[in-house]
Amino acid sequence: MRYTIQRLLQAVPVFFATTFLIYAMVFALPGDPIVALAGDKPLSPELLHTLRERYHLNDPLLVQYGRYMLNAVQGDLGQTFTGQPVSELLQGRWAVTAQLAVTAWIFELVVGIGLGVIAGLRRGGIADTAVLAGTTFVIAVPVFVVGYTAQILLGLNLALFPTAGVDEGWPVSYLLPGMVLGSFGLAYVARLTRTSLIENVRADYVRTARAKGLRRRRVIGRHALRNSLIPVVTFLGVDFGNLMAGAIVTEGIFNLPGIGQQVFQSIQLQEGPVVVGIVTMLVMIFIVVNLLVDLLYGVLDPRIRRA
Amino acid sequence: MSRLVSLFTLSGNTPREEHVTVLTRIRGFAVLLATALAVSACGGSEPPAAGGGQPGAKEFSVALTEPDHLTPGNTSSSYSITVLQALFDLPVVIDAKGQPQMRAAESVTSEDQKVWTIKIKPGQKFHNGEPVTAESFADAWNAAAYGPNAWTNNYYFENIEGYDKLNPEAPEGSEEAPKPTVDKLSGLKVVDPNTLQVTLTGPFSQFPITLAYTGFAPMPKAAFADLAAYDIKPIGNGPFALDGTWVRNRQIKVKKFEGYAGPRPAKSGSINFKIYESRDTAYVDLRAGKVDLIQTIPPASAPEAKKLLGDRFVATPSGTMDYLGFPVFDKRFASADLRRAISMAIDRQAIVDAVFNGAFKPMSSLVAPLVPGYREGACGEACVYDVAKAKALFDKAGGFSGTMNLYFSNADPSYEQWMTAVANQLKDNLGIADIQFRKVPAADYLSTLREHKQDGPYRNNWVMDYPSPQNYLQPMWGEGNRMGWESKEFNDLIAQANSAAGMEASIPLYQQAEDVALREMPMAPLWNWQDQGGYSDKITGVQIDAYSPNLDLITVK
């Protein structure tokens, strides 16, 4: 318990440091966002000034950041250049990204560990070779190629999944993008599980378990696998954060109105409040997930359980 | 991408500078690869299936990129305009031939091209039942012209009398402009419910045609009670009314307005504008039968789309042009002969074929072909690719020494592709040895040009607002232009044309001005864009033209 509180307290300086850093980085981007928004159209100095005032772009960095944090604490995250409140915008978008990330994560977890176990138990067999080859391929091919290929083959030509959009809701609309997004992590999970399992299967305690005459299923499931999962859990934990943050390409291909799309647009438009809002949330997710992973270690391996 | 960053803008940048990004570049490649895989795996793909979108009777769907605003005075994004054209009837409309026709207005007339009388057709209603009167127009225009509102289309009203009072300039030494003391244009006078009198600051023969721009739409009284709410649920006077509110990044639904009394009642029950982040995805959805109409098929997919869609592939000429501008203020580019020589050394057709799949049209005129008054070959030999003549003229002008920097923005990878082709041609044909690229961040590009920081030829793009030569010539070659080019002869001709007795009479004068600009060649025309769209077999009556997708004409089978 004390450990948990300690960890959460550590998050406070991390929170301020990241938000300030992000704010400063957006602030330092070249060019004037308002002028850029107007495109080739003439923009009178008065109009420019009014808009810069409206978005507080004339103030120095520290003042802008201070105002932002003050408002943020009161639940006001500012508004986008199109006048939409950031909190409202993020609400809708987080839901989409969270559903996508969860789908991808479950896919990684179930299929990844499953494949890893199959490969690890019969080292050198056909299944093992197939898993190794398949995962190498997935790791080597960029996600946008996997994405478009899956969309055209499975979505368009075979019509097994919707091609794009979120009209059909969870899980149907999220299956294909989730699989694409999770494919990369899945390859790692499968390989980690396999390697870890191969090592543990030869360990003394597994031999002991076998010698005791335990059934194979119990030896593998209860003893070997449980120990093998520690590195896998670490990876899955960190990867959940990555899935939330790394969906830019996938969301684009499958037209999912999530966080990835938004952060990409906002960086280009230099919408400081939106970028900071999103990145702060991502940082918090990383912190919480890492904490959960550390706590989970204790469950898997009592030796590292803390007081 | 217009736009990933397509996208969204208080922003006129979506139509102006296409918002295409690194992501789209990657996608272009991915689509090729994916399509190749798909085709080899399945031995050819099927044509789009029938049906699509939500069931719902007589509804069809249109792929859209997220608009920025839906208040007509506060958006110049082409995506917003697509929706607004369904929701609003403007005073005037441009027909497929580029001619102005009356729509919400009965007539737009003037004796002296300065004081205009707009007669509004009686009996029209807004979607909330309010009558459409002269006041509806005056209210909307006053709001757009009112400086503190900071609406995008503010500058469209600058030639109406009283604009200055609504947009007072900041006093010397201060950035802060004083608050205007009035909030109405003195040049707008509501004579009676159906008559609006507009007094301009000077004669302007093209005024009627500008009234076809969505910035001139009327707004009901109800709008002004809550402008923020109006922006996501606009109330218009057109054949379609908003159904629900704009669901950001998802969809905008509109349904047939039963109380519509104008000239173009909707032929379908409703339209679902489905918002896409990527044009590639929208195209896949068209093939999957999930969206019925897309207005921009990605160039990389165009050849395939042509095959798959057959008659349902539509190529529409557009008013958008690319130019190569010269920094005339830099003395190395002061010679008109040098500038003409560079223009003659560029093989426009070869670049169009290589970079744009041959879809764009090489230009020998400063205005697009669909603009009344366009003359094919107005440029003469200065826009004809001729290496020998170019080289001779180049040498006569004294050649070019030092580094030639070519300027373009990083908004789209195609800019660099065609600039590279231009550089190679200048190297080979004129012997300019040292050519460097200056790829400027998109957010910085236009201010670079505005501040005359470019010391070499640069990419200049123009999206037409209304089909008049004036819309090209005056903003780009007129006073305060980016080239630093000054010609009294040109400016005088434009002023004469603006005060000519009418549209017809103004054209020869604009053409003379164009001749001056072509003779001096401060900016060389390159090519004219084309839009490529397509639709599903579920709808008929698709008549997209350069001015409107004409969604009211579409029938659902």
UniProtKB/TrEMBL annotation, chain A:
Residue ranges constituting the ABC transmembrane type-1 domain according to the UniProt record: 94-297
Listed name of the protein: Peptide/nickel transport system permease protein/oligopeptide transport system permease protein
Family membership: Belongs to the binding-protein-dependent transport system permease family.
Signal peptide: none
Membrane spanning stretches: 12-31, 94-118, 130-154, 174-192, 224-254, 274-300
Pfam families per the UniProt record, alphabetical: BPD_transp_1, BPD_transp_1_N
Principal localisation: membrane
Subcellular location: Cell membrane
Gene Ontology biological-process annotations: transmembrane transport
UniProt cross-references to InterPro entries, sorted A to Z: BPD_transp_1_N, MetI-like, MetI-like_sf
An example Gene Ontology CC term for this record: plasma membrane
Superkingdom of this protein's organism: Bacteria
TrEMBL record, chain B:
Tree of life domain: Bacteria
Single GO MF descriptor: peptide transmembrane transporter activity
GO biological process: peptide transport
GO cellular component, one term: ATP-binding cassette (ABC) transporter complex
CDD domains reported in the protein's UniProt record: PBP2_NikA_DppA_OppA_like
One family name in Pfam for this protein: SBP_bac_5
Domain Solute-binding protein family: 100-481
PANTHER family given in the database record: ABC TRANSPORTER SUBSTRATE-BINDING PROTEIN (PTHR30290:SF83), PERIPLASMIC BINDING COMPONENT OF ABC TRANSPORTER (PTHR30290)
Name of the protein described by the UniProt record: Peptide/nickel transport system substrate-binding protein/oligopeptide transport system substrate-binding protein
Organism: Streptosporangium subroseum
